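Thread: "does anyone have the structure for this chain?"

Original post by V.I.:
We have the sequence but no experimental structure in hand. Need at least a predicted one for the grant figures.
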Amino acid sequence: MIAEHAVKHRGFKKPALLLEDTGWGKSNHRTMSAALKQNQLAPAVTKWFNWGINENAVRIMLREIAQSGADCIFLVANAPEGKTFARAMGSLPEDLCLPICSHWGITGGDFAESTGIGTRTKIDLEFIQTSFSFINNDNDNDIYVLNDAEKNIC
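Reply from O.Q.:
Generated one for you, tokens below.
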């Protein structure tokens, strides 16, 4: 869903994949790469990280991604690392700040409090969430996106 939304609705062509080095991250790597391939696209770069990565290491990684020619970042992370990536992106110079399209999981816990309004207004961050119903199973899942206009309500 992240790849579909980012390519079709945002017009991104060279995403960086930024994935936790777990089974979940590896599964997302396969599905995102396949979704990009269906659109005749490929990741500009793929970066893997471990749980508990520190903000300095994240800044280095984000700089490398910006230098790769990527036009956005597809992020798959849990809440603790999501906060670290958001804060690190917010601390970079504007020319290195790439849009982030993320799984909704990064917003758990105290994401809003720990990232702060200043960071959330500086970065271009969208959370993607699908909706599924067993009652109305028409195979047409809805996608909900929290984007720039809504990020101040986090």
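V.I.: this helps a lot. The chain has five helices and six strands.
O.Q.: and The beta strands are 15-20, 45-49, 72-76, 100-103, 125-131, 142-146.
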